[in-house]
Amino acid sequence: MRVEVRLFATLRRYVPHLGVGEPLYVDVPEGATARDVLERLGVPPEEVKIIMRNNRQVDMDTRLEEGDRLAFIPAVGGG
């Protein structure tokens, strides 16, 4: 099944060809989780602070469905 993925801020470095705001389409097997997508992309799960699935916050072990839209957001700081 195919899911749409967006990597924000420092997480984009794991997919260097990905432009700002550009989606990435990832094929994963049935029953895959958000954690599986991160593994496939080579993104360490500990670098992800927030995961959004179809505009709702979920956890790493949420099972995905065909056509889901995922957003992975790191912890950010500033002042």
Task: Please explain how this structure is put together.
Helices cover 10% and strands 32% of the residues. With 79 residues, it is mainly β. It has one domain: Beta-grasp domain (Ubiquitin-like (UB roll)). A five-stranded mixed beta sheet has the order 2-1-5-3-4, with no helix packed on it. The chain starts with a strand and ends in a 5-residue tail after the last strand.
Descriptive keywords:
5-stranded mixed beta sheet; 1 helix; 79 residues; 32% strand
**Biggest sheet overview:** 5 strands, mixed
Distance between the termini: 41 Å
Q: What spatial form do the alpha-carbon principal axes imply?
A: globular
Mean pLDDT across all amino acids: 94
CATH A-level architecture: Roll
Indicate the low-confidence ranges by residue numbers.
Answer: none
How much strand content do the residues show? 25-35%
**Do you know the CATH topology?**
Ubiquitin-like (UB roll)
User: How helical, in percent, are the residues?
Assistant: 10-25%
SSE string: EEHEEE
Tally of extended strands? 5
- Structural class, please? mainly beta
Q: Quick summary of this structure?
A:
The chain has one helix spanning 34-41; strands at residues 2-7, 24-27, 48-53, 56-58, 69-74. The chain is mainly β and 79 residues long.
